[in-house]
Amino acid sequence: MGCAISGPGQYPASGREDVVAVASLSLSDRQTQLVKETWRLVQEDIAKVGIIMFVRLFETHPECKDAFFLFRDIDDLQQLRKSKGLRAHGLRVMSFIEKTVARLDQEDRLQQLALELGKSHFRYSAAPKYYPYVGNEFICAVQPILKEKWTAEVEEAWKGLFHYLTSVMKKGYQDEERGSCPREKPKHGPNSV
Q1: pTM of the entire predicted model
Q2: Quick one: average pLDDT of 125-132?
Q3: For residue 168, which of 105, 98, 121 has the smallest C-alpha distance?
Protein backbone atom coordinates (compact mmCIF):
# COMPACT_ATOMS: atom_id res chain seq x y z
CA MET A 1 0.00 0.00 0.00
CA GLY A 2 2.49 2.64 -1.01
CA CYS A 3 1.71 6.20 -1.86
CA ALA A 4 4.25 8.57 -3.28
CA ILE A 5 3.24 11.43 -1.01
CA SER A 6 3.12 9.65 2.36
CA GLY A 7 5.50 10.92 4.96
CA PRO A 8 6.64 14.14 6.49
CA GLY A 9 7.60 17.28 4.65
CA GLN A 10 4.78 17.36 2.16
CA TYR A 11 3.82 20.92 2.95
CA PRO A 12 6.16 23.89 2.99
CA ALA A 13 7.45 24.90 6.41
CA SER A 14 6.02 28.10 7.84
CA GLY A 15 9.27 29.21 9.43
CA ARG A 16 9.29 29.14 13.22
CA GLU A 17 7.42 26.17 14.62
CA ASP A 18 6.12 28.13 17.62
CA VAL A 19 4.37 30.78 15.52
CA VAL A 20 2.11 29.78 12.68
CA ALA A 21 1.11 32.31 10.08
CA VAL A 22 -2.18 31.55 8.41
CA ALA A 23 -1.78 31.14 4.70
CA SER A 24 -4.45 32.53 2.45
CA LEU A 25 -6.51 30.13 0.41
CA SER A 26 -4.66 30.44 -2.86
CA LEU A 27 -6.61 28.05 -5.08
CA SER A 28 -7.29 29.29 -8.57
CA ASP A 29 -10.85 29.19 -9.91
CA ARG A 30 -9.87 26.10 -11.89
CA GLN A 31 -8.45 24.36 -8.80
CA THR A 32 -11.57 25.23 -6.80
CA GLN A 33 -13.71 23.71 -9.53
CA LEU A 34 -11.54 20.56 -9.64
CA VAL A 35 -11.85 20.08 -5.88
CA LYS A 36 -15.64 20.48 -6.08
CA GLU A 37 -15.98 18.10 -9.04
CA THR A 38 -13.80 15.39 -7.56
CA TRP A 39 -15.43 15.73 -4.14
CA ARG A 40 -18.81 14.88 -5.69
CA LEU A 41 -17.29 11.59 -6.88
CA VAL A 42 -15.61 10.88 -3.54
CA GLN A 43 -18.91 11.42 -1.69
CA GLU A 44 -20.27 8.23 -3.23
CA ASP A 45 -17.73 6.24 -1.16
CA ILE A 46 -17.45 8.59 1.79
CA ALA A 47 -17.43 5.99 4.58
CA LYS A 48 -14.97 3.80 2.68
CA VAL A 49 -12.59 6.72 2.12
CA GLY A 50 -12.72 7.65 5.82
CA ILE A 51 -11.82 4.13 6.91
CA ILE A 52 -9.08 3.70 4.29
CA MET A 53 -7.63 7.08 5.20
CA PHE A 54 -7.32 6.30 8.91
CA VAL A 55 -6.14 2.72 8.50
CA ARG A 56 -3.41 4.04 6.17
CA LEU A 57 -2.61 6.81 8.64
CA PHE A 58 -2.10 4.32 11.47
CA GLU A 59 -0.22 1.95 9.19
CA THR A 60 2.22 4.58 7.84
CA HIS A 61 2.41 6.70 11.02
CA PRO A 62 1.65 4.41 13.99
CA GLU A 63 2.64 7.18 16.40
CA CYS A 64 -0.59 8.98 15.40
CA LYS A 65 -2.64 6.35 17.23
CA ASP A 66 -1.50 7.88 20.51
CA ALA A 67 -3.69 10.89 19.74
CA PHE A 68 -6.76 8.63 19.51
CA PHE A 69 -7.94 7.22 22.82
CA LEU A 70 -10.32 4.73 21.15
CA PHE A 71 -7.72 3.23 18.80
CA ARG A 72 -4.59 3.45 20.91
CA ASP A 73 -4.60 -0.21 21.95
CA ILE A 74 -5.77 -1.79 18.67
CA ASP A 75 -2.76 -3.25 16.88
CA ASP A 76 -4.58 -5.48 14.40
CA LEU A 77 -5.38 -3.48 11.24
CA GLN A 78 -8.21 -5.88 10.32
CA GLN A 79 -9.83 -5.24 13.68
CA LEU A 80 -9.29 -1.52 13.16
CA ARG A 81 -10.99 -1.63 9.73
CA LYS A 82 -14.09 -3.11 11.39
CA SER A 83 -14.13 -0.65 14.29
CA LYS A 84 -17.37 1.32 14.60
CA GLY A 85 -15.41 4.06 16.35
CA LEU A 86 -13.03 4.36 13.42
CA ARG A 87 -15.92 4.48 10.97
CA ALA A 88 -17.60 7.21 13.03
CA HIS A 89 -14.41 9.27 13.26
CA GLY A 90 -13.73 8.81 9.55
CA LEU A 91 -17.24 10.08 8.79
CA ARG A 92 -16.69 13.13 11.04
CA VAL A 93 -13.51 13.97 9.15
CA MET A 94 -15.26 13.47 5.82
CA SER A 95 -18.06 15.74 7.05
CA PHE A 96 -15.45 18.40 7.81
CA ILE A 97 -14.06 18.02 4.29
CA GLU A 98 -17.58 18.31 2.90
CA LYS A 99 -18.13 21.55 4.85
CA THR A 100 -14.74 22.77 3.63
CA VAL A 101 -15.64 22.18 -0.01
CA ALA A 102 -18.99 23.91 0.51
CA ARG A 103 -17.16 27.00 1.85
CA LEU A 104 -14.46 27.27 -0.81
CA ASP A 105 -16.02 30.48 -2.10
CA GLN A 106 -16.38 31.91 1.44
CA GLU A 107 -12.86 32.09 2.83
CA ASP A 108 -13.89 33.85 6.08
CA ARG A 109 -16.32 31.05 6.94
CA LEU A 110 -13.84 28.39 5.85
CA GLN A 111 -11.11 29.93 7.98
CA GLN A 112 -13.41 30.05 11.03
CA LEU A 113 -14.35 26.38 10.53
CA ALA A 114 -10.68 25.31 10.41
CA LEU A 115 -9.71 27.54 13.36
CA GLU A 116 -12.43 25.94 15.49
CA LEU A 117 -11.27 22.47 14.48
CA GLY A 118 -7.71 23.35 15.48
CA LYS A 119 -8.97 24.60 18.85
CA SER A 120 -10.90 21.40 19.46
CA HIS A 121 -7.82 19.38 18.56
CA PHE A 122 -5.94 21.19 21.34
CA ARG A 123 -8.63 20.08 23.80
CA TYR A 124 -8.19 16.49 22.55
CA SER A 125 -4.37 16.77 22.75
CA ALA A 126 -4.02 16.03 19.02
CA ALA A 127 -0.73 17.71 18.14
CA PRO A 128 -0.40 19.79 14.94
CA LYS A 129 2.55 17.70 13.77
CA TYR A 130 0.00 15.03 12.72
CA TYR A 131 -2.30 17.30 10.68
CA PRO A 132 -0.43 17.10 7.34
CA TYR A 133 -0.52 13.30 7.48
CA VAL A 134 -4.33 13.29 7.24
CA GLY A 135 -4.28 15.30 4.00
CA ASN A 136 -1.64 13.01 2.54
CA GLU A 137 -3.62 9.89 3.43
CA PHE A 138 -6.85 11.40 2.11
CA ILE A 139 -5.15 11.97 -1.23
CA CYS A 140 -3.82 8.40 -1.26
CA ALA A 141 -7.29 7.04 -0.40
CA VAL A 142 -9.13 8.91 -3.17
CA GLN A 143 -6.67 8.27 -6.01
CA PRO A 144 -7.91 4.70 -6.68
CA ILE A 145 -11.53 5.80 -6.39
CA LEU A 146 -11.14 8.61 -8.93
CA LYS A 147 -9.04 6.45 -11.28
CA GLU A 148 -8.39 8.34 -14.55
CA LYS A 149 -10.03 11.49 -13.17
CA TRP A 150 -7.08 11.81 -10.76
CA THR A 151 -4.54 14.04 -12.47
CA ALA A 152 -1.51 16.03 -11.38
CA GLU A 153 -3.69 19.14 -11.56
CA VAL A 154 -6.32 17.59 -9.26
CA GLU A 155 -3.60 16.49 -6.84
CA GLU A 156 -2.12 20.00 -6.68
CA ALA A 157 -5.56 21.46 -5.97
CA TRP A 158 -6.19 19.08 -3.07
CA LYS A 159 -2.66 19.57 -1.72
CA GLY A 160 -3.21 23.33 -1.79
CA LEU A 161 -6.48 22.97 0.10
CA PHE A 162 -4.98 20.70 2.75
CA HIS A 163 -1.96 22.98 3.15
CA TYR A 164 -4.34 25.85 3.87
CA LEU A 165 -6.44 23.79 6.30
CA THR A 166 -3.35 22.54 8.13
CA SER A 167 -2.03 26.07 8.50
CA VAL A 168 -5.31 27.42 9.88
CA MET A 169 -5.81 24.44 12.21
CA LYS A 170 -2.32 24.92 13.64
CA LYS A 171 -3.17 28.56 14.29
CA GLY A 172 -6.39 27.55 16.07
CA TYR A 173 -4.49 25.01 18.15
CA GLN A 174 -1.93 27.64 19.16
CA ASP A 175 -4.60 30.23 19.93
CA GLU A 176 -6.33 27.75 22.24
CA GLU A 177 -3.02 26.70 23.79
CA ARG A 178 -2.13 30.32 24.58
CA GLY A 179 -5.61 30.98 25.97
CA SER A 180 -5.43 28.02 28.33
CA CYS A 181 -2.12 29.05 29.88
CA PRO A 182 -2.53 30.89 33.18
CA ARG A 183 -1.61 34.49 32.77
CA GLU A 184 1.04 35.91 35.03
CA LYS A 185 -0.07 38.74 37.28
CA PRO A 186 1.82 41.95 36.68
CA LYS A 187 4.67 42.41 39.14
CA HIS A 188 4.36 46.16 39.16
CA GLY A 189 1.14 48.05 38.94
CA PRO A 190 -0.64 51.07 40.32
CA ASN A 191 -1.39 49.28 43.63
CA SER A 192 1.96 47.56 44.11
CA VAL A 193 4.13 48.45 47.06
Answers
A1: 0.79
A2: 89
A3: 121
